From TrEMBL:
GO terms for molecular function: ATP binding; D-alanine-D-alanine ligase activity; metal ion binding. Its main location: cytoplasm. Its EC number is 6.3.2.4. The active site is at E17, S145, S280. It catalyses: 2 D-alanine + ATP = D-alanyl-D-alanine + ADP + phosphate + H(+). Its cofactor is Mg(2+); Mn(2+). The keyword Nucleotide-binding applies. This is D-alanine--D-alanine ligase.
Length: 311
């Protein structure tokens, strides 16, 4: 392991996913310390940018999730400060955080993603129902961890879905609901060197992989590697690498996929700062590939870079 210098672990933040980020950051910090890295926790929700500059970190691990941490804002600050950081740069981070913009790029690249409708009112959601059919998914396009997400099975649930999602933002994403198997695929590297790790299948109670089943309960079952044919595995992984490269991602990300009953994969979204909690999926996939949690953390810090100002 090369000398990584003074490493900051940025965590916490001010997004709706703060509680998850606190867990991710603590896990990364402890893993880096176990490997002898000079790691330091830094809560961006409680400390200022001036404090960040004064720390003189040689590089940082971004363990922030959601707005102002995963959306390009923090990445831009780090570029200005000239501090190498983990994960994708400003552009890829901001695109992936916007699920509507992500869909536009996926469609432009002819990658399969569920049909969608942008809604700003309850009336718009009824229009979405006419176009997409039921069931459909309604969610705020700039949140993660299924926050504000509602599956609409009957028309009478549209009002509830609207009220839930609009508490997060005014413009909503209505999406065709794909019935089938839920998969997620970590991707690492950059450009031609980007490669997918083993696919994970998520089998949640009643098919409901919500915040509780993601981070709190222990009832969700994970199959890694997912039980898929070699041909289908390769197809899904290739789609995910293409999606990763389409938005200009690098370092690492995790792509969420639904596999319908005809074995057609559908890309849902790209997570550019995946969770690193005890329930998280990238560490699980990396372990199936022979890489421990601590080794994964060190690897990601070793790949930290600035994307605009090369250091």
């Amino acid at each position: 392991m090369k000398n990584l210098g003074k490493v900051g672990v940025l965590y916490g933040g001010i997004s709706a996913e703060r509680s998850v980020s606190l867990q991710s950051g603590q896990g990364v910090y402890e893993a880096l310390k176990s490997k002898g890295v000079d790691a330091h926790l830094f809560d961006t929700g409680e400390r200022s940018l001036a404090d960040l500059a004064e720390q003189k970190f040689d590089r940082v691990f971004i363990a922030l999730h959601g707005r102002f941490g995963e959306d390009g804002c923090t990445q831009g600050v780090l570029e200005l400060l000239g501090i190498p950081y983990t994960g994708p740069g400003v552009m890829a981070s901001s695109i992936a955080m916007d699920k509507i913009m992500t869909k536009r790029i996926l469609l432009e690249k002819n990658l399969p993603t569920p049909r969608y409708y942008v809604a700003r009112s309850e009336e718009d959601l009824h229009m979405a129902e006419e176009q997409l059919g039921l069931p459909m998914i309604v969610k705020p396009p700039h949140e993660g961890s299924t926050l504000g997400l509602k599956k609409v099975n009957v028309s009478q649930e549209i009002s509830e879905a609207f009220e839930l999602s609009k508490t997060y933002e005014s413009e909503l994403l209505a999406e065709q609901c794909i019935i089938g198997r839920e998969l997620t695929v970590p991707v690492m590297g950059k450009g031609a060197d980007a490669h997918a790790l083993p696919i994970i299948e998520i089998i949640a109670p009643d098919g409901n992989y919500d915040f509780n089943n993601k981070y709190i309960a222990n009832d969700t079952v994970y199959e890694c590697p997912a039980k898929l044919s070699p041909e289908l595995t390769a197809k899904i992984q290739e789609y995910c690498v293409q999606a990763y490269n389409a938005i200009g991602a690098e370092g690492w990300s995790r792509i969420d996929v639904m596999l319908d009953k005809n074995n057609q994969p559908w890309i849902l979204e790209i997570n550019t700062s995946p969770g690193m909690t005890s329930h998280s999926l990238v560490p699980m996939s990396a372990k199936a590939n022979g890489m421990s949690y601590a080794d994964l953390c060190v690897y990601l810090v070793e790949t930290a870079s600035t994307k605009v100002f090369k250091k």
